[in-house]
Amino acid sequence: MPNSNETGFDTDYARYLFHKGENYSAYLYLGAHRLSDGSVVFRVWAPAAKEVWLVGDVMGWQQGIAMRKVSNEGVWETTVIKEDAPEKMRYKYRVVSFSGTRLKSDPYAFFAESLNKNASILYTQGNFRFTDRQWMEKRKEIYGREHFYEAPINIYEVHLASFLTRNGEGNEKGDAYLNYRELALKLGEYVKEQGYTHVELLPVTEYPYDGSWGYQVSGYFAPTSRHGSPEDFAYFVNYLHEMNIGVILDWVPAHFPKDEYGLYEFDGGPLYEYADPQRREQPSWGTRCFDVARNEVRCFLISSALFFLRNYHVDGLRIDAVASMLYLDYDRSAGGWTPNIYGGRENLESIEFFKRLNAAIHREFPDVLTIAEESTAFSKVTEPVENGGLGFSMKWNMGWANDMFSYVACDPLFRKDMHSALTFPMVYAFSERYVLPVSHDEVVHGKKSLIDKMFGTYEQKFSGVRLFLLFQMTFPGKKLLFMGSEFGQFREWDYKNQLEWFLLDYPAHRNLRAYSRALNRFYLSHGELYEDDCTWQGFSWISADLAGWNTVCYTRRDLSRNALHVALNFSGSERKNFWLEVPKEYQNYRTVFSSNDKRYGGTGTAGGTHRAFEKNGKKYIRLNLPAMSGVIVKGIKNKE
Asked: Would you say residue 328 lies in a domain?
């Protein structure tokens, strides 16, 4: 664990930068740190407190040890001798204020209790040694800020507590959670075999309530102890790196829960949250909103992000609920919000926060990805800060996802009236750098699982999901799929129970997972599908206006202009003798991937060779496109 150890560490300067809003290593100053003589110094920020006491296992939970105020801006401090501060001791701060006395967990704790227990745990002597140098060098080479979007990025989104549990038991039983080390082996091997480049973990920063899925965070510097110690989490990241898999964390700077032991009114009144009642609370979520205009709060959040990048070698952060921070009227009725100084609805402080956050991350880690969950048309989300943007690497294309989910749920007889769902995303496809997400949010709360969204019979749903995945994989943008979607889990995701792995006993589900694996691997081995995801040189329509046929055809090219041609039939009828226009340079073309392959539950063969013919000065090949199926074809050089 990081430790200032007070050797060559200027505490006065660290405190000065913290109050100025420029200490992005605030966890080296605040929190608990063991000194060279073995004693431990505790520091906490509570400017409105009248008294602060350190309480815990050794010093007692009632009175405790008095702390002294060391800055006018509200930092309190005390030092405890080695004998009274054993490693993994539980502790809290007793904060006395005008509103009473409350026991508070340490906002900067590196380790904490989970679920019904909420004390901080002293953790200063972690000594895990990373062995992922090869991955870190590869990351620097492939995912550097200037060229990361030329790399394949195919993300498997995971909720660790329900991916796999011990003996298949519900994960709310304390003994049902797998340790990070066990999860590393199981998840790492699975993701590697399936052909994903990254895993994205729903929040693993400590959280009190399983039902929040981790999105109501209580410990911004502590990996949840549901799955083990901080060292265990370091092992998890290191192991996945050795498997050549990147690790992205879901990170939540928008809001926090109102648990009394947490950040909520930490020193008796609003501190981490806004004081303005029209900004203070997120109405639908019942949570408090961070006051990112406050210097110390900005330091707290940016330090949290950098902490996981520096100390756990994390490869990216997916930033949750960005839109809720960008707009003052988000989820608020008329009269329930105050315009900014220019009369607008934009939260100027949040805009500045995101610029500072991304600038700080990419200055130190140009090869780390920051991904915005941003559902509006806010401009320049993925434009660099120096060019006037927010500085994110990518953002989720939630418009694409919403359009497609509506489309695939529709009876093919009526899809001609929704054809724009397939084509309209190209109108704005290159306005930002996008991820095409099939996320956890889309497979809960009555929205149905991915396969159950598909129109039709049981068999038709499998054809539909294979075609959908082929469209996602060949369309411009990086990819994200929530766990269980790859093998067709019909039941909506349930955080209380593990995925329905027993479905793999059935051929249809087993074949779908094999299809997903083959498609992922095809993606990884064909630069045409990822090297140029952000210009019209990498994509061109062949046929975009066949609404009556529910069909689209397009070409994808790599940076060397090698091409793959895609034909997708979203109708319920076979398109026999379909003419696909192709470049004139080749006489023969080969189907190199088909969603209707018998190996994956379809009715056809893997491919075939097609001889081109000319008509009216254009060249075509003839294809048979079964209902709800798609193919990828490629020109064959003469020597092939």
From this structure: no
Joined tokens for residue 135:
């991955």
**For 573, phi and psi rounded to 5 degrees?**
-125, 150
Residue of 157, 296, 373, 528 with catalytic role: 373
Find residue 554's DSSP bridge partners: 541, 566
- DSSP state for residue 108 in the 8-state scheme: T
Cβ proximity of 305 and 361 under 8 Å: yes
Q: Which of 102, 121, 140 is the last residue of a domain?
A: 121
Residue 424 CB neighbour total at 10 angstroms: 13
Catalytic residue among 113, 250, 320, 533: 320
| Burial classification of residue 134, based on how many CB atoms lie within 10 Å of its CB (0-12 exposed, 13-18 middle, 19 or more buried) | exposed
Diameter of the chain measured on Cα atoms: 91
Q: How far apart are alpha carbons 261 and 69 in whole angstroms?
A: 21
Per-residue pLDDT of 293-347, as tens digits, reads 999 999 999 999 999 999 999 999 999 999 999 999 999 998 899 999 999 999 9
- Which residue has tokens 């509570």? 46
**Is 579 exposed, middle or buried, given 0-12, 13-18 or 19+ CB atoms closer than 10 A?**
middle
Whether 613 is covered by a domain: the verdict is: yes
Q: For residue 574, is it within any domain? A: yes
pLDDT for residue 7: 54
- The answer, as to whether pTM is greater than 0.90, is yes
Give the chain's domain count.
2
Residue 26 confidence class, pLDDT cut points 50, 70, 90 = very high
User: How far is it, in rounded angstroms, from Cα 391 to Cα 272?
Assistant: 24
Residue where one domain finishes, among candidates 101, 121, 141? 121
Q: 606 falls in which pLDDT band (50, 70, 90)?
A: low
Tens-digit pLDDT profile for residues 51-63: 999 999 999 999 8
Other Cβ atoms within 10 Å of 180 Cβ, number: 25
What's the CATH number where 583 sits? Answer: 2.60.40.1180
* Residue scoring higher pLDDT (485 or 168): 485
The domain containing residue 567 runs over which residues?
539-636
Provide CB contacts within 8 A for 543, sequence distance 6+. 551, 552, 553, 580, 581
Residue 158: per-residue pLDDT: 98
Task: Please report whether residue 32 resides in a domain.
Answer: yes
What is the CATH classification number for the domain harbouring 80? 2.60.40.10
Tell me if residue 373 is catalytic: yes
Environment class of residue 322 by beta-carbon count within 10 Å: exposed (0-12), middle (13-18) or buried (19+)? buried
- The verdict on whether 320 is a catalytic residue reads yes
Q: What is the dihedral of CA 285, 286, 292, 297, to 10 degrees?
A: -120
Residue 481 to residue 290: CA distance in whole angstroms: 30
Beta strands at 90-97 and 100-104: parallel, antiparallel or unpaired:
antiparallel
Residue 111: HSE in the Cβ half-sphere, 13 Å Cα cutoff:
24
How far CA 14 is from CA of 8, 72, 99, in Å, comes to 12, 14, 30
Confidence tier at 604 by pLDDT (50, 70, 90): confident
